[in-house]
Fold Phytochrome-like protein cph2.
Amino acid sequence: ALEHALSKFQPTPPARRQASPDIAVSVQELTEAIENGELINYYQPKVTLHSGVIKGVETLVRWQHPSKGMIMPMQFIALAEKHGLVDALTLRVLDMALAACRRWHDGGLKLSVAVNLSARSLANTHLADDIVRRVQASGVDPHLLVMEITESAVMDDLGASLATLARLRLKGIGLSIDDYGTGFSSMQQLSRVPFTELKIDRAFVDGVSEKPQLRVILESAVAMARKLQITSVAEGVETLEDWRLLQALGCDLGQGYFVARPMPGPDLVGWLKQNSAR
Ligand code: C2E
Ligand code: CA
Ligand code: CA
Ligand code: CA
């Protein structure tokens, strides 16, 4: 059954023309880009490691610059954070993700959609209310939305983070610990936050089949998720060997180039059709 599931995955088309990694962008440009709809969402599948069934997608923003090409989030998220634009960016990305989720749902696809939340946003107590309002207006079941927050962001100021995160969770929105393993939180700390998912950073996943020392970290992360009774997700699954190993460790979901690269919403529907046709 696994061989069958794995053989389903088709290579996704190469990325579109990307801007050079050291391209300079200004705050002014970014402000306008957020307002003018130059940001677009890519989506990357999260599938069960056991059987390869798609459970949801992670939203990854890109800036489709009219002349500079496609700019990756690493090139503008920090700028948005520094200049107080990141909440506006998050809400834009969220609106698009909710609209996509709604379309998929109307087409018979019940997929959860994850949106990344910046560390900077955690202290803004109004943001949780804004998010909840938008989910309600969209008609999307809040249980289908997951907010991903990096481990270090939450632990840096647990008190402030808790206020925002608990508000979201109370409405049914899922909460994922992103980049798990890069911070130093204890199980006791993690258990204070109502997380529903633990995402193991790709630094511990990529190449694990060749590096036994990573295996120990993965094992303990999966065990921790199980104790907390939350879903474990491995990001950055790039090879069949990594997949097999994670599956043997009992990790629930996998995400990575081995399954599919992030892709625009319309391509996702095509990818799903192609991969469920067999
Ligand atoms: P992240 O949340 O850890 O997202 C995973 C990153 O790993 C994505 O990079 C994804 O394209 C990449 N990736 C996925 N599978 C593989 C794989 O198999 N191998 C390798 N080498 N990489 C893989 P991306 O799209 O460039 O995003 C980078 C970071 O930018 C994200 O890291 C996230 O922290 C941030 N980001 C992206 N979208 C948003 C957003 O809407 N809001 C905020 N605040 N941050 C965002
Ligand atoms: Ca993420
Ligand atoms: Ca990561
Ligand atoms: Ca690799």
Q: What stands out?
A: The first strand starts at residue 39 and ends at 48. The beta strands are 39-48, 54-65, 69-71, 112-116, 145-150, 174-180, 197-200, 231-234, 253-254, 263-264. The first helix runs from residue 2 to 8. The pocket of calcium ion (ligand 3) is lined by residues 179, 201-202, 235 (CB under 6 Å).
